[in-house]
């Protein structure tokens, strides 16, 4: 008769740092490999950078030429913000990209009666862009104040592993409508892309070329190249000639109209659309999106720290990062990117997929963003990749980030009824409430909040359309009011508390110390 299994054979001890990564936050691949990986992160960031202006600019009255300039400006500002965040912010390997959270207040500005009555489309585009810039500039103060005053560090004292699980998990799961619903817009390229990416990055990851796991490291760039060529072949052979407009827009490689309208060289500069205009209602609505960006980024930073094999960022480091992100939104307003910024979830997922969490790789990708945003034609070539190709990859990468959130449950007692309640209810409501708001908006063409005060509607509709934001409100409230005094150990607080302060764990210095000896002037708390 076989001996009963020992406890260590059926359970896994909790681990502060994720194991199995090839390069952690401060270890660097060889320069050639780092540059290729940086280019891969740049390609992935293009999906959102092209999709947001492609959606918003036509609504604003802009032409294809305007759209290209907004894409270039967004990429340029993304590059600057990513460099600032990796050098002086949290110092985690995170790409700071465009955010969909700002869509509700921006669409509200687009439909403002003072702008819709402008007859000339180009004048209306410029007027709308300047109004968006003004709102972003004012709203950015929320993150700048919360970050640099260390107020967000104080708020983070109310977070625990069990309260953070829904926030991080829904930073990935909450984007489910950006995954297969978008890939399914062109099944013939979306599904092969998904299958090929999974095969290359997972099943063939041990395939080595000169002792180099080339398929695991570069699965994204190889599969995008293969499927993009296949999509181009379908386009050139006339497969879409008599198909509906929507199919042609999603599947064809020549419908983006980016390459023909892009200038060869163009350097974006502040106030390039003219002087921003300021309106209190617009700014207040935009502040809700800035709060959503703050909460989504908090979850993303925690996920990135795990996928970079670092310890969770101490409270003051997290707050410092939020302050720099506020500066990033200020830059978005000054340059005119048509949206604010947040941590790019797909790029966080790519850290796990490649098993490379190196900070240098992300800094190189920021260099590519700036370089290709100035060289318009070359940037436009890569930006014309059909969106269903990106959406197929999101199905993997968003799921990966979500599972990192679930991995924080290892530090909690999941045999506690209280913890099951907190985690389950906040996860469910985090998915269910935004879905209600989405369905209502689709059917009624306005959100559930529909009063005469437009700023109030924008505020509520923006907050409740974000899964991580709803999850954080529910989880933090339940976690800090329900038997919280007697359940510190069950909530995972003994493990969590040592990462709250910079000196709480000796590894924090290695991961989060500022460069150029700046810690002398900004001593960690």
Automatic annotation (TrEMBL):
<feature type="transmembrane region" description="Helical">
    <location>
        <begin position="42"/>
        <end position="61"/>
    </location>
</feature>
<feature type="transmembrane region" description="Helical">
    <location>
        <begin position="92"/>
        <end position="110"/>
    </location>
</feature>
<dbReference type="Pfam" id="PF00860">
    <property type="entry name" value="Xan_ur_permease"/>
</dbReference>
<keyword id="KW-1133">Transmembrane helix</keyword>
<comment type="similarity">
    <text>Belongs to the nucleobase:cation symporter-2 (NCS2) (TC 2.A.40) family.</text>
</comment>
<feature type="transmembrane region" description="Helical">
    <location>
        <begin position="459"/>
        <end position="478"/>
    </location>
</feature>
<feature type="transmembrane region" description="Helical">
    <location>
        <begin position="420"/>
        <end position="437"/>
    </location>
</feature>
<dbReference type="InterPro" id="IPR006043">
    <property type="entry name" value="NCS2"/>
</dbReference>
<dbReference type="GO" id="GO:0016020">
    <property type="term" value="C:membrane"/>
</dbReference>
<keyword id="KW-0472">Membrane</keyword>
<feature type="transmembrane region" description="Helical">
    <location>
        <begin position="131"/>
        <end position="152"/>
    </location>
</feature>
<feature type="transmembrane region" description="Helical">
    <location>
        <begin position="389"/>
        <end position="408"/>
    </location>
</feature>
<feature type="transmembrane region" description="Helical">
    <location>
        <begin position="218"/>
        <end position="240"/>
    </location>
</feature>
<keyword id="KW-0812">Transmembrane</keyword>
<feature type="transmembrane region" description="Helical">
    <location>
        <begin position="183"/>
        <end position="203"/>
    </location>
</feature>
<feature type="transmembrane region" description="Helical">
    <location>
        <begin position="361"/>
        <end position="383"/>
    </location>
</feature>
<protein>
    <recommendedName>
        <fullName>Nucleobase-ascorbate transporter 2</fullName>
    </recommendedName>
</protein>
<feature type="transmembrane region" description="Helical">
    <location>
        <begin position="158"/>
        <end position="176"/>
    </location>
</feature>
């Amino acid at each position: 008769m076989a001996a009963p299994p020992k406890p260590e054979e059926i359970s896994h001890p909790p681990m502060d740092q994720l194991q199995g990564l090839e390069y952690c936050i401060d270890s660097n691949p060889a320069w050639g490999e780092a540059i290729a990986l940086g280019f891969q992160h740049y390609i992935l960031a293009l999906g959102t950078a092209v999709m947001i202006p492609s959606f918003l600019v036509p609504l604003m009255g802009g032409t294809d030429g305007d759209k290209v300039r907004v894409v270039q400006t967004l990429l340029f500002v993304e590059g600057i913000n990513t460099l600032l965040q990796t050098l002086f912010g949290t110092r985690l390997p995170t790409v700071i990209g465009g955010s969909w959270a700002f869509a509700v207040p921006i669409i509200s500005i687009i439909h403002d009666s003072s702008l819709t009555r402008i007859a000339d489309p180009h004048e209306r585009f410029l007027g709308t862009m300047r109004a968006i810039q003004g709102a972003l500039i004012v709203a950015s103060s929320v993150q700048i104040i919360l970050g640099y005053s260390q107020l967000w560090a104080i708020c983070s004292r109310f977070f625990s592993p069990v309260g953070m699980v829904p926030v991080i998990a829904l930073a990935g799961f909450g984007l489910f409508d950006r995954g297969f619903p978008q890939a399914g817009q062109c099944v013939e390229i979306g599904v092969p892309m998904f299958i090929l990416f999974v095969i290359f990055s997972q099943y063939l990851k041990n395939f080595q070329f000169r002792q180099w796991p080339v398929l695991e490291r570069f699965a994204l760039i190889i599969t995008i190249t293969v499927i993009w060529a296949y999509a181009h072949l379908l386009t050139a052979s006339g497969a879409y000639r008599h198909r509906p407009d929507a199919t042609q827009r999603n599947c064809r490689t020549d419908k983006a109209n980016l390459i023909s309208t892009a200038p060869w060289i163009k350097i974006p500069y502040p106030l390039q659309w003219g002087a921003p205009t300021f309106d209190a209602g617009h700014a207040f609505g935009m502040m809700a999106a800035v709060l959503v960006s703050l909460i989504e980024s908090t979850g993303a930073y925690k996920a990135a720290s795990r996928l970079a094999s670092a310890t969770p960022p101490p409270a003051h480091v997290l707050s410092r990062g939020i302050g720099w992100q506020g500066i990033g939104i200020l830059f978005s307003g000054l340059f005119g990117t048509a949206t604010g910024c947040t941590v790019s979830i797909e790029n966080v997922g790519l850290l796990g997929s490649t098993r490379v969490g190196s900070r240098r790789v992300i800094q190189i990708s920021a260099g590519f963003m700036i370089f290709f945003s100035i060289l318009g034609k070359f940037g436009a070539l890569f930006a014309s990749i059909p969106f269903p190709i990106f959406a197929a990859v999101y199905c993997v990468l968003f799921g990966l980030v979500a599972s990192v959130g679930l991995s924080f449950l290892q530090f909690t007692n999941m045999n506690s009824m209280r913890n099951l309640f907190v985690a389950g209810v906040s996860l469910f409501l985090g998915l269910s409430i935004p879905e209600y708001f989405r369905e209502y908006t689709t059917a009624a063409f306005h959100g559930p909040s529909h009063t005469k005060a437009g700023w109030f509607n924008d505020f509520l509709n923006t907050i409740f359309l974000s899964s991580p934001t709803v999850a954080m409100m529910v989880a933090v409230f339940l976690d800090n009011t329900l038997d919280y005094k007697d359940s510190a150990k069950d909530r995972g607080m003994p493990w969590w508390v040592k990462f709250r302060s910079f000196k709480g764990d000796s590894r924090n210095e290695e991961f989060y110390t500022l460069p150029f000896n700046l810690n002398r002037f900004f001593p960690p708390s």
